[in-house]
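For this section, I looked closely at a protein sequence along with its fold in token form, which I now present.
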Amino acid sequence: MCQLLGWYETRPPPGILSLPMKYVFLLTDGAADDPLPDLDGRTPMEAARTPNMDALAQRGRVGAVLTVPDGMYPGSDVANMNLLGYDPEKYYNGRGSLEAAALGVPLEKNDACYRASLVATDGTTLLDYSAGHISTIEARELIQTVQEKLGSRRFAFFPGVQYRHILRVTDGSVNIRTHPAHDIVGQRLEANLPEGDGDAALRALIYDSLDVLDNHPVNQRRRGDGKPPANMLWFWGQGRATTLPDFFTTRGKTGAMITAVDLLRGLARCAGLRVVEVPGATGYHDTNYRGKADYALQTLLGGTDFVFLHVEAPDEAGHEGDLDAKIRAIENIDKHIVAPLVAGLNAAKEPFRMVIAPDHATPIALRTHRAGAVPFLLYDSTRAENGTLPFDERALPETRLNVEQGNQLIELLFEK
């Protein structure tokens, strides 16, 4: 259920609605959190210096949105599909297939597709879910070797970005239980191996990948440099090919996606959104924040109606348990994305609406995703509101703007 309390009480300036509206959905991945003793009971969103988002909140509305349906895993795949307007209970078909779509991996009807994460292990315990955020160049060399040594007519490996890659299983089953690598850091591998149809072959591949990768020249160099090795592939997020209704046909809006991760690129391509590549966008703390804002502005002013702008950095900081990095990522979003994007649209005299929201919480204390509502900010440049709530978790129990189905939030953004 969605409540629209008082959004249209203020009349817009005469003639403003004759101009085309621009729409921005800024997704701050994993930014929501829990109160922390190190912050005197505040959350990273609350502690971060965000004058630009604060200003929008004072002239907009802050609400609460449930981004993941009850009973579904609170992953970025489910949450972002929901926030893009596609009900995951109807359309979700596994994370692997979305990332495969981003890479152009061909999938037949009965193929199973898995995320294949390059991880660091001592052979017994999963030590690092991202292998020290291995570079894409290094990772591609490793995946090429795995394909040469372990690839077959049944199993095929495809390189992605950094530690994120794809395993396609021809005529494979998806009736199998797997665990995301970022959920089992520090845990024994044996307790988290795949279970279900075809699990013996997947388990064998996991340990075979350790044999192939552990002494690979790339990992010898990494150890010499004091970095963790990317010495095993971990399979999870299985599913079959995803099909989504065309975004333009459904919404009547042309759209584009800006992101550094294959999951979001895959969502965009399944929905028919144009993927805008930004140089220096890494999906990590060192991403090109300002470049994302500049390319979003260029895309909007170039005639596109809607931009979904995704930033992965807060989520990565949450998984690493790095409080300073999470606060810094939120501040960088405010300074290098929100500020220039709003200033650019205002300078161009473009009326616009913007939603800013996390897709889920990735609490520092948990180092993984948590279910539950997250705060969102809704701003309309043509309608000055008297916002009273801060854009952080303090608003959750106070707001009267509650969106109980995540796929309805985009309806608020596009509401006439």
